[in-house]
Every structure is written in structure tokens, then in C-alpha cells.
User: Fold these one by one.
Assistant:
Number 1:
Amino acid sequence: MATKSLKAQKSELSNTQRQLEILSNGIFQNGKLPTFRQKLKEHSLPQIQPQKLSILQINVGYMCNQVCAHCHVDAGPDRKEMMTRTTMEECLTVMETNQIETVDLTGGAPEMHPEFRWFVTQIRQRTSVNEIIVRSNLTIIMANKKYHDLPDFFAENEVHVISSLPFYKRGKTDRQRGTGVFDQSIEALQKLNRVGYGKTNEQLKLDLVYNPSGAFLPGDQMAMENDFKKVLMEDFGIEFNQLFSITNLPISRFLDYLIASENYEEYMHALVEAFNPIAAENVMCTNTLSVSWEGYLFDCDFNQMLELKVASEHSHIRDFNAEALEQREIQLSQHCYGCTAGAGSSCQGSIA
Amino acid sequence: MKKEYYNPEDLKKFSSITEWNKELGEKFFDYYSSVFKEGHLTAREKSLIALAVSHVVHCPYCIDAYTKDGLQRGIEKEEMMEAVHVGAAIKSGAVLVHGVQMMNRHDQLSM
């Protein structure tokens, strides 16, 4: 398993332009498969339009204690990009002056940001944001003594914790996320349970994210949730609220894996074949904006990683203008098929 | 005409069989999708049965489809292999049980 990001390896695929070329050439250029725009037309669907913004997803930096094989961020210990306090202040101003229902903090491992706790408490104290989500990789809680009290911090601030756990068995989890990740994740989940997470308290929600460990699409979310709940309870006494089933999008490290394992064409074919027009109407970019560590705005975290900024003059958080941004055209490419396949996929799981 | 009898690309064209006989083709696909719905057996159990049968009937298309289906359902490789052994055991048992016919015939013909 790789221990360095694609960027540190100076891989061809760390170049986002190259990724976009791959996603537009070959099978999508020779007509073997329709492009995402063509597919929308085939189904008489209009261009995807933003609606009222309710979720601000803030990526505070790409540093992470893990180097997961499927990571669309290409995160890892060698990534030093980090949001400044000035940009965090600009985000807080937007939260104070606009009706933002949910702030979704992601990374990397957002908890590794030195201003992480300050930022969370400021959101709670200064804004009327209803829900703060932290996307935690779980192992960070066990990684260093200074993170051991994160479950208490999360509980004090009523943070909604959404954690990745690729599978309820050690083998598949460790193959995707690194040796030892499963055991540490289990320990972290038990710690979260001990402070009240994942039980009946509505303020202490603990959801898990499942994503396939290979070149195949996720199965039915509810069936997977039942399997996860049964095994995690029986084997480890762990409780959680919901399981979100997320499709791996063909960008960054997962694209690298697809190409290296000669699964790219077959995977794209599976995504296109599973196109679901109902999912296309509910994609997350209709109500979410993604903010990068530098403060730029994107239609989603995937577009952020492809460096496809919002098509608007207001493309930085300091120039935020909700009305103008609602009029923008969402940037599409063939990776968007990942959000519309089967039951659809978003940062909140299935959408159809 | 391609030289191989089996082409993985043909699996994607399976639904095209309805083009030459719409009524029977559609009846088959309706029946097929009903069979695999959750019932007294779970869809997961049905997927494992389908994987075992795929091996017994030597269908590379079906093995491809139900290995992927199993992965999507979170079925583990150990479960898949056990299912294949169930199919193999029945297949080899079916061969071996004919040995009794051989024994009967042998004894009938022998002094």
C-alpha cells in the first residue's frame, strides 16, 4: 500500500488537467459511452441547477494521518495545504450573514488542523448554524494523546460525527485504509459510544460511511446498514445511527487504481449503465457548496479536487453572494456519473 | 465472426435478446427480476445460490455477474468459495452416485 500521496510521488494523475482529459477522452470521445451532459439530454433532464444553499462543506486542509487507496482528496501526512485563520474568519462571516443550515467539516483529517477546535467552537458560539458535521476517519482519535479527548469535545459541541468505515471486517478495511486501521477504528467507535454517540440522543449522531473496496458499485444502503449494525453489535458492542453508502468517484487515487488495475472502462460502463434520473435530480451540488483550504468555492468536494471552481464571479468565500451563486451553472464532467449511479451517492449517502 | 465463443462484452448486451422476441424476452427478464427479490430467502442468500449454480452450469457470464453482485452486497470471498464448494460437491456427488448404476450393471453382467 502506498504511503505517499500522488502529489508527493509526482504521479501523472496528481495533475487535475490530466484527470479531466482521461475523463473526457477515450470511451467518451469515441462515442462508446455518452458524456454526462449527453446522458442528461437522453433523459430529457435539464442542466443541473443549484437550489437554495443549505450545506457549506469546508475542507480545512489535505493533511491526514492515513493514505487510503481510494482517497479522492489524495490526502496524507505529506500534504501541507491548510486553511488560514483569516479564511476561517471569512467562512464565519458567511455563516453569520446567511442562513446556512449545516456546516460540514472535512479534509484530510480536519481534526489535525491546529485551529480545528477554535473553528468549531466559533461556529457554535457566533452563528445560528444548526448542524456541525465533522468527517472523522476515526483513527485520528487514537493516533496521538492530544486527540484522545476528541469524543468529549465533539459531544460538548454537539457535533454530528460521520466516520468512514469501509467494512465491518478487518481484512477489507485494512486493505483499503492501511494495516491496523480497523482495530483503531473499532476502539475509536467504542470511545464515541461511551460518551453517548450513536445511541438515542438526537444531538449526538454517529453515522458511518461505507464505500466499496474495489472496482464495483455499492449495494443497497439499507441492507448494508443492517449487516453493519448486526456484526458491529455482536462482535464489538458498537452502536451507530445510520450507514451512508457512497460510490467511489473516478478521480485522483481511485482513478489511478482503476487505470492500474485495468478496470477503468468497465467501471465507467457500470456507472453509465446504472444512471438513475431520479438521483440526477437530487445530487448534492444542488444544495451544497464546497470551500477549499484557500477559500475558493466549488460545486462539490470532487470538483474541488479537480480544481473546477464554481462558474461565477463570486468564486471565493470573501466574495460570497448567495443569490448570484444560485444562478451559476454547475461544472460537470464524467465523474458526475458517480453521484447518479443506482440509488445515487452523496456525502449523505443514497439520494434516490 | 469473432474467434472466441465467449466475449465479456456480450454480457452487457444480454438485454438485447428481447429485440428478436420481445414477448418472451420481457417475460424472462420479469421472471428473473422477481426471482431475485427479497422473499423467504434474502437477496444475499439468493446471490450466493446463483454464484454456486453459475459454476455448476459453467457460465462465465454468470460467474462474472454474481461475483460482482456478491462484492456489492458485502459478501466475503470466504463465503463465495464455500458456495462454490457446495455446487462442486453436488456436481461431483451427481457424478459419483452414478457409480451405483455402474456397480449394478457390472454385477448384473458378471458371473
Number 2:
Amino acid sequence: MARRNSPEADFDRRLLLAAGAGTAVFATLVGRLSQLQLIESDRYTKLAAENHVRLVLAPPERGQILDRFARPLASQRQAGRVSVIPERLKDPEATLRQIAEHIDLPETRMKRVLEEIAASRIRRSGFVPVTVVQELSYEEFARLRVRAVEMEGVDVQMASTRSYPRGRDFAHILGYVARASADDLTRLAEGRAPEDLETFEELFRHPDMRVGRQGMERYAEDWLRGRPGRRRVVTNAHGRPMEELEQDPANAAVAGKDLYITIDSELQRVAIDRFEGESGAAVVLDIASGDVLAMVSTPAFDPNAFVNGISGKDYAELRDNTMSPLYPRAHGGVYPPGSTFKMVVATAALEAGVIDTKTRFTCHGRMWFGGRNWHCHKKGGHGSVDLHNGIKLSCDVYFYQVARLAGVDKIAEVARKFGFGEDWVLGMTGGRGGLVPDRAWKRKARNEEWFEGETLNFGIGQGQLGVTPVQLALMTARIAAEGKHFKPRLIGLGPEVPEDGDLDMPLDAEIMKLMKSGMFGVTSEPGGTAYRSGDLGLGGPRLAGKTGTAQVRNISAAERVSGVRTGDAIARELRDHALFVAYAPTDNPRYAISVVVEHGEGGSRTAAPVARDILAAAIKMDSGRTPAYSKRAATKAPATDGKPEGDPV
Amino acid sequence: MSREGFTGFTRGEARVSAARGVYFDRFGPFGKIARLPWSIILLIVGTGLVGTAMLFSVGWDPVTAAPSPDEANLWRDHITRLAVGFVLMIGLALLPLSAWSRLAFPAYAAVIILLVLVDFFGVMGGGAARWLKLGPIQIQPSEPAKLAVTMAVASFYQRMMPTNGQSPPLYVHGGALLLVLIPAALVFKQPNLSTALALTASGAMIIFFAGISMRYVLAAIAIGLLSVPAIYTFVLEPYQRERVDTLIAGITGESTNGLGESYQIEQAKIAIGAGGFSGRGYLQGIQSQQEYVPEQHTDFILTIIAEEFGFIGALALLSVFAFLFAWSFMVASKNRSWFGRLATVGATSTIAFFAIFNSGMVLGLLPVLGMPLPLISYGGTALITVMACFGLILSAHLHRDEKLSTRGLF
């Protein structure tokens, strides 16, 4: 028997003590376990359930853009797409090589995809598909679809992508969509509440989501976008969807609204073809409604190339092209209007009462003023010229005199009444207002007084004056409509364009009739500067117009003497621009047009035939007939109050 | 009373032991195997298999209704290690205590060398140098250190125990404390606070059981409690302090928002609470199957047991551990040698320390300190160490009547 005080006996006692302490610890643990699992279990069960249900964003389908007769110009197209799910790939590179056996997959793209896969593994987001090729050709899709069944983690399916079936034809009007960049997000985020921003960022991170980056796609972003929905999904801690739950219809995505533009895409096509590869612009207006029926800027680019991200090389090619295909000439190209501006000068002088129809000036081919000779385009001079002949013959000396009498500020005032100097947004981006100079502008911009000589230059549409083809078409339409109130429109059914006012400042109908008479003379009276272009070739209706030549640079005295001013003798980019404005038919004007052929040299020679053929096509195709959306608007009466309902939050 | 007049004999077990000795002599090592407490071994291995099953559940992908390829290695590794550990445990159980005691100091020296090497050549893992690469095998010397220190301290007392039936003098306890604190300090330096604490705790338990005066025990507890604020301020790393803050906030019910560890503890509590009384069923834990609890295959594996098998399952597991520890205490009590007794309580304390600390941590009662749940958590070195500790306890059971000499240190 061990002694009571022996270490052995003490050991047993201490064992009991420790066992007692252990029992207390055990009781504490079990107590805590009961608290969590028995008493508070309901609360934690609820918390667990809430942990898992997530509202996953469902992107809306973007609205279509259609032309006047409901032909699709920008639409959502189903295209084959191949993506990989990183967490299901054993050897990502081997899988990609397998894919590359069936489709065209460049090495650079493969490298980028591998980087994305590696990144997603680090982020533990391996369940989020990584797109390998956004748009497969139909053959590639069919081929890969069959093969992908055997490839673990490869997903081939149809996905919605933005498509521009008319390609280049509408590039400068519609612009394009692209994956949202940080800049896009900042732009869209402006003025939104912070809680909306989160949704916004989440929405635009979605691989199917695009944002209007340029053109009407950008201007009408809110109209087209629609509202994202929310799908109730059970997800795990890393956001991976585990199970779909029953969906609440109120949370479904709302597709964006369709947008109609006033353009007749067939007329647009005819107009583009007519340029035959020359760079330039043309704008056709419906005089009665103010609808833009065609708006051409050539050359153009293919917006489809931008939707899924254009390569740096391709973009550089577009950017550095000497023909500037990215440049929106019709509404963003600023040119000196040349002689097409003479109607404005004449109107200003008539309004001011400094001339009348009988006022005559004699043209000797030049005029001495301010210590230098001011030349007329006709070397020998036009002799005695009145208003009608001044326009018909485009006599420069006549308009030097008229401009002097009217004064710069009066001409500028009338030019603004015609819509010059104003940026006609019409629902696009990249537009410019040009410049209508006057004394105040000169003082402000140059800190100089206006020289009388500049007024002379102004009188023949040269100098500081800069106008866009859109403005020229508007001027022509107003003359043809004899000064009636006018509201140009490019969006037929879509958001309002509050930036654009109406052209409603009064123009005297009698004066406009005089202008029309002069323009009729240009094309239909012998001696008119575009006499040969008056006949539309439709066996009756004629057009009335006005030629113009915009100097790209000053003519030197030596060239004037030698006569070498045109043709192959000088480099293309130094040749003058050819302009022509016109309306037709002359007896009951329906269409107005402006044409600029860059470096086309002579308005009558190159621009007038283009304008004539486009007008003839418009009349023949009856481009201005009732648009598809007007019936639609009358019967279904969708929200045309101009408030975009496509707001996502 | 002489050392031969030992507790066990006086309780009338001498005859039984003698009979078993004959049995052993007649049938050799196989007889010894037959005399192993197989029901206890079954319990140990069964607990390990529960770990395997839970690791299978952790690696389960409920969407594909198949094991997730990334995590299929979890249960396979575990069951392999369990098999290796089982063989090792049985092998060690057959080792006589004299052999254990002889191996104690060499093992201790080897562990100290490895720990020093880790400080210089260790592979970084989780922000600390804990691993040593030996060819294809990575070992964590702090794990075998738990067993080696227990053996060394127990062997030390065996050799230093006075023959006059008195408790050892104070300097012997001091020597034992030194044996504990040297490796503990090396491990603490890695830094590996949890293992340093485990080493110190099981060492302290051995010293306590070796009969140090209760005065010192109480004094140590008092000093320990008083030094808590100082340790908190000067010893703990900022991340460790944060864990303590989170814990206190969690227990007192304050908001734990903004505290780094709160997410893990909160998710663990949700998983446990969501299990309720009977659990959601195997592979059915919504919180666990959707990976809301971080480190669920290692330190937080108790959460998936609690969620899928509920209060019943968690209570059963804790009870199994409690039973194994109680049984081990019985083994200690019945052993004839000081080495056997002290090594058994040391090994038991090591395992119990992890079991208690891990459960307390997962249940939000103790700070988060990287403690695996013995036999269950994923992690090779820890599993093997625990099996080896059980091997020692089983050996002490098998060799309870073995006499060891008290021949001094050398």
C-alpha cells in the first residue's frame, strides 16, 4: 500500500484533480455547443440561408437601331462563342491547343487567355467563364460544337453580340459599342447615387455588356440600354452559382428600346456608291419634315471591328490612314463654303436694304480694294451683273461689293439665322459648329479689329468662315422652303435632342424666292455655272443648286499668272474642295442636298453630278415617304416624351 | 515502502500481470499484439476515419455531385497518413518503456537540432519558417518536438526521482522546466505560438504530475494570470493581438466589424448553429458545402461536423475525445514506472490541449491560433504525431508492469 503522502498517491490525487478540471472544460464546450446549436440555432440557420442567396445581375438586351423603313442598322445578333471554365481545366494550354486545331486562334490571343485563366485561379473565380473567341464563323461554331463535347471545361454556345449589318454605311452616324472602360464608367457614373454606381460597375463588368462609345450608340445610351434584371441564385462563398431559384418576374431584365432614325438606308447606299472612293460628304434633307434622309461621310470604317475590341494594329491603320476614315465629315468636317455661301450674303444685303434686284455692279475680273487686287474666278470679268446673274454666274466681284455694303455683322447675323455656327447634334457625337466670324469674334479671339478686306473674303465664303455639310444642307432646305420654320431631325423615334433648337428665325419668303430663282439659273439657264447638271434624267423634274469651291490654300500670284492651279500639276491634298448645294424638284421642292467632294477642284465638275444623281435616286425611290415608325407611334404610342426609361436602377 | 511495493501490485493485479507475462513469453510479439486494447485502437482509428469522411465532404462539389478535382486529394492524403500512422502507432505501442526512455534524450537532441535548423534553413509557410525540406518530404520539427519533449521530461524524472519515497527536490523540477522551455522558445521564435503553448502546457502538466508542491502550482497560475496584460502588450504580434480582440468582442457581444478574424469566426458560428440538433446530413451542410468557412479542412473542420451531424455529432465527437483522455489517465494511474506515468499524462495533455483549444477556438471561446483538431484535421505531421502519442500511451498500457531503474541521468 502506497503511503498517503507518497508521490504515487499524490500522482493519483492530481490525476483526479486534472480529470475534474477536464470535466469542467468539457462541460463548458458542450454548454457552448448547446447555446449555438440548440438555443440560437434558428438565428444561425436564417443567417446561413441569407449567406447563400444572391441576386445575380442579368444584363438587358440592347435596343436595335432601325432606319426609316425599319431596316436594322444595329442589332443584337446571336453569334457562336467559345469560352473555357478555368476550374474544370486540367491543363489549360493543352485545351487551348485542342481548340486551336478546329478554329483560327492566334498565338497572341492564346497567351492572353492563359493569363486570364491564371488570374482567375488566383482570385478563386475559376467558375467564371473566360472567353476564348467572341465571334466564331458559322463553320467554326458547327465544327467546334461537335468537338467540344469531348473537351472538359470548354463551352461553345450562342451569345448575343452587337452587329452592324450595314457596316461602314452608318459608321459615323451610329458609332459603335465597346466593353466599358474606366473612362466610360466615370462618364456614365456622373450624377448618380453611390449605390447605383455599384450596380453600374457590376453591370458593365458582365461579358455580354457593351456601352455606346461613339455616335448615336453613345448619345442614346440610356434609351438603348434597358434595365438589368436580377436572378435569384444560390452561390457559394466565392460567388459561384450553385443552384437557380424561382425567379421573380418583377426582377426580370427589361430590354432596351428600339430607336428609329430618319435615314433611308437605300438612299444612303446609293449616295456612298456615288462617291466612287473619293473622300467627301453628302447630306440629304426632306424639306417638308426636316428629316435627314442620307448622311454620308466617306471613307468610313467598319464599326463591327470595334464591338469586341479592335486590335492596336488595326486601329493604328485606321488612325494613320491619309484618307482619315475615322473623321465624321458630314457633321464634324468644317470647310469654307466658297460660293455656296453667296445666297446668305445676298439675303443679308437684301434684308439690310443696301441692294435690290436691280442693283448692278460691273465686273472686270478683278477689283482693287485696300491696296490689293481682288480677283473674280472669271479672268475677263462678267461685265454688268445684277442679283440674279450674280448668283447664276457666281460673280465674285458682284459679291465683294454686296458684302461691303451689307457689312460683316449683318452677314454673320443672317448666316446664324440659316443655322451656321451651330453644332447640330442630331443625336450624334463628333459634330462641330464651324465658325461664323464677325467683329466681336475677331476682337475676342484675335484681339484685333476687323479689316474691311476680310468682309470681301467673307462675301465669297472664304476666310475664317467654316461650315459643315449638315449646315449647308440646312441652308439649302430653308431657301427651298422659302424661309419656313424648320426642324432638322435624325432621330425618328427615340430620345429627344434638347441641344438642337428649331430653325425658326424669320427669313423673308420674297427674298428666298429670289435666291431660288438665282439657283434655278445656275443649273437651268445658259451660262449658269452648273448648267449641265440641271436635268435629273427623270424626264421632267429639274434641280436648282449652287456650286462652290473651297480653297485649301491661298493662290499665289505666280500660279495665277501661269494658270497652273488645278489637275495633276499639284498634289492631291492641296487641291480645292468641290461643293454643291441643291434642291429638287424645282417646282415643288422636296429634297435638299449638300455635297462636298474633297480635293474635287470644281463644284460644277465633280460635286454637282454627285448631288444630281443622289437627288434623282431620292425622287425615284420616294425616300421621303411615310416612315415605318410614324404608324407605330400612332397606334402603340410608346413613350416618346423623350425621357429615357432605360435607366438601369 | 520500497519501490517494488507498487500500487498496481497491492491492488491484486500482480497475479494477472504475471499470467500475461507468461502469455507474452509463450507467443512472442504476436501475443503482445493480441493484448493491445483493440477497442481503444478501434476508437482512435474510427475517429481518424471520421476525419477522412469529413475531408471527403469538404472536397465535395454539390453542383456536379462529385468530388471536386482540386480537393479530392484531401481525403486520400488523410486516409494514407492514417494508415501510416496506424502502423507506426502499433509499432510504437510494442516498444517497451525502457526503450522509450532510452530513446528520449537522443530524440530530444535530434528535435532541438532540427528546430535550430528550421530557424536557419526553414521553408516559409504561412508567414513563418516551420518546415524543413528533407528530399521529397517536408517535415515540421515542432510536431515531433511535442512527443520528444514529453519523453525527455518523463525520462528525466524517471532518472531523478528520489528512491526514498519523497517528492523530487525543487532543482529537479527546475531542470525539467528548462527541458521544456528550450524547445518551446525555439518554436515560439518561428513564430509558432500555438505549438509553443502546447509544449509549455504539456511540460507544465508533467511537472505538476511529478509532484511539484501545490504552492508553486498556485504561484505559477497567479503569475500567469497577472502577466496576461504584459504578454498581450509586449509579446504578441499585432495579428495575434487582433485575434484576442476579436475573441473578446465576440464573447461580450460587441460588434466585431472591422476586426480581421471576425469573418472566419462569424462564418464558423453560423455553420455550427445552422447544424441544429441533428444536423443537415452528410454532404448537405449549406454553409460548409458552399465554402463559407475558411480553413475548413484544417483548423475549422469541427464546423462541418457540427453542421452536417448537428449537436449530436459534435457531442459524440467531444465525448469520444473525453473518453480517450479519461482512459489515458487510467493508463497513467496503473503504470508502475514514473516514466510510464509521466509520459502518458504528457502525451495525453498534448493531444487534449489541441482538442480543447481547437474546439474552444472554433466555438468562439478562445482566440484563433492555428490548432488542428487531433486525428480529424488535414495535415500530415500533426496526424502522425498524434498517432505516435497514442502509441506511447498504448505502450504504457501494455507495459504497465515494466520496471525501470532510477539510475540517474547518465
